[in-house]
Amino acid sequence: MAVTTSEPEDNEMTLSPELITQLTAWRRDFHRFAEPGWTEFRTTSAIITVLRDLGWDTVFGPELHDADARLGVPDAEVLAGERDRAVSQGADPELVTAMGDGFTGVLGVLETGRPGPVVCFRFDIDSNDLVELANDSHRPFAEGFASVNEGATHGCGHDGHAAIGLGLATRLTQLHAQLSGTVKIIFQPAEEGVRGAHSIVAAGWFDDVDLFVATHLKSDDDKGNVLTGSDGYLASTKLDVAFTGIGSHAGGDPEKGKNALLAAASATLNLHAIPRHSAGASRINVGTFHAGEGRNVVPRTATLRVETRGESSEINSYMDDRARDVIAGAARMYDVDVEVTVVGKADQESPSPELLPYIRTCFEGVDGVAEISDTGGLGGSEDATAMMKRVKERGGLATYVQIGMDTSWGHHTERFDVDEDMLAVGVEAEVKIALGAGEFLAGEGDENRVR
């Protein structure tokens, strides 16, 4: 994980060949050692090491998070196994120990010592729960950097995001004399399932941010298309549902049982029958259903993994409320107990419109950029919206940028791969964002912003 820190070239936005090579090396290293949410011990360790070598301050472990605000954290046994695996794969044992029970992710801070704004960039680092394709038609497998961690695959580009973040930190270190104020880079855990942003926000790390940019590589046939203000993300709630009944012999005394499987089945069918909302798009999905122990046993347990989504936070709240009603009704129907746990959530949050022209100018002229649009985007969900919301509440400006790649397969698929040409595009444009932020915000009346 070595890094090049040579002096800037005449064109300060152009990356050196050495750094471009390093971006690919970082991305492939993260891809090979993919780690799901709240278990990114090796990934976090590697990032901390690079940031410290660059001279950045680092905040990680329990200090980075409000423990009570974390969502969907794996149990202690899983975390212990993942810590051991990370160390066996090269993570710094002391850093892993300091991350404790899944307090992964890191905030890098570069203080310039000169007055100016606080500019923050966010890059997510977790992998998907996914089995990667294992044949030579898939480049990571053919070139030897496919995931070695069973059931964990970077199928959404977060390996590329982490590499962009380290490339940005490298260039800003080299250009330190031209910066003012403070730069923060958040390497966020547990974005998948919209779980990881809330505890970082609750810990107060966004309360002083003047300008915030989240970044995502996007599977797209139109390579180099940039979206400066993605507003297509849906609000969402992720629910784990556990039904508990009473087991009995299915032939000898079935009347003594209380069938959790039937309650879960009833809930599954009726969840998908919830009427859609007239005010905008709404979604619901039961993604997994596990129940029962044996053919001749009345099932005493059943679990569902459910998600709701809405074009607005209000529509999602409607879907969430109705889903809980359906789940409770199914439990009453079969006289079983039920517990519903929120394991992830995201609001809908729009980018600051006054920020988008500035982001556009920073991408214009960057080699590899094709068309630039200001609105649109994916129809999934994102917990970076929690960061955006907090920044805007405190008087700052925030947006979510997408960078199009030429890839054959979409996100969250076993064939997904990152177009590595676009890593440098992200670094170059976001260097420009950081360098010009002070002048831009002064023109926007930053001195009047409420803190």
* Series of H and E elements: HHEHHEEEHEHEHEEEHEEHEHEHEH
Order of the strands making up the biggest sheet: 1-2-6-3-7-14-8-13
Helix content estimate:
25-40%
Q: Can you summarize the main beta sheet?
A: 8 strands, mixed
Task: Provide a count of the helices.
Answer: 12
Q: Give the distance, in angstroms, between the N- and C-terminal Cα atoms.
A: 38 Å
Query: Per DSSP, what share of the residues sits in E-state strands of 2 or more residues?
Result: 15-25%
Task: Return the structural class.
Answer: alpha/beta
| Bulk shape | globular
Uncertain runs: 2-10, 447-451
Average pLDDT metric = 94
Structure, explained:
This protein is an alpha/beta fold. It is 33% helix and 20% strand. It contains twelve helices and 14 strands. The strands form three sheets. It has an eight-stranded mixed sheet with strand order 1-2-6-3-7-14-8-13. It is globular.
Task: State the gist of this model.
With 451 residues, this protein is α/β, with parallel strands linked by helices.
